[in-house]
Amino acid sequence: xxxxxxxxxxxxxxxxxxxxxxxxxxxxxxxxxxxxxxxxxxxxxxxxxxxxxxxxxxxxxxxxxxxxxxxxxxxxxxxxxxxxxxxxxxxxxxxxxxxxxxxxxxxxxxxxxxxxxxxxxxxxxxxxxxxxxxxxxxxxxxxxxxxxxxxxxxxxxxxxxxxxxxxxxxxxxxxxxxxxxxxxxxxxxxxxxxxxxxxxxxxxxxxxxxxxxxxxxxxxxxxxxxxxxxxxxxxxxxxxxxxxxxxxxxxxxxxxxxxxxxxxxxxxxxxxxxxxxxxxxx
Length: 282
Known about the structure:
By secondary structure, the protein is mainly alpha-helical. The protein has helices at residues 10-15, 17-22, 38-53, 60-72, 76-90, 94-106, 110-119, 126-139, 143-156, 161-173, 177-190, 195-207, 211-220, 225-245, 273-280. Helix content is 66%, strand content 0%. It has a domain at 46-119: Serine Threonine Protein Phosphatase 5, Tetratricopeptide repeat (Alpha Horseshoe), CATH 1.25.40. It is elongated and about 55 Å long.
């Protein structure tokens, strides 16, 4: 759940854009996805200006597609304006509500975003509503609540690799290392090329004490130093959460949170990611 927080002030928001991209490979960074540097910022500004000049598409589906493309480029504020225009012309639909909820979350309006996601729970997009509520909870540091919402999302959309990856990440951050294994492995086999999912598996391996597996996986995927540092930072947070989740708030010396044999041992050689994932599933 890359289960990153955008500062409440616009100036601080712009400064965090670069950090958001660097962390986007981790489950936590499913919350924030943005561009980096002056070039992409200028490009997005030009797109925003162009979007404000272009007439709205002729059909509801085309208009929703345009709004979705705007969000994929990070134009969340502009998309909110177009969602208002869409709903004024066509009325609110589950798809427009989801776009609004996502845009509100990405523009640091969590209460309004939560209200919008909640409106989806009685619609065919209920799984997206639960996922959004889970991402909001994770963004506020409530990984237990995030795991609960994402579990409901996974029950409604059992083959969605992003939901499964986010669920695994949330469970890790809540201190449930053993519980993270199955959803992460499902996500990996459904979408083994997804770098965010692979990074969450590297995080699991580190948290589970399988440092050699994690290192081999990061080497094979050519993860940048800042991504590796972010994974290790999250592994430390998982360790702290695991200690708190143990009886008495700390683990006995030498104890292990995952049953022996859950993860097969690796040889001291670098192997392709897919072979590591296959052993991880054993």
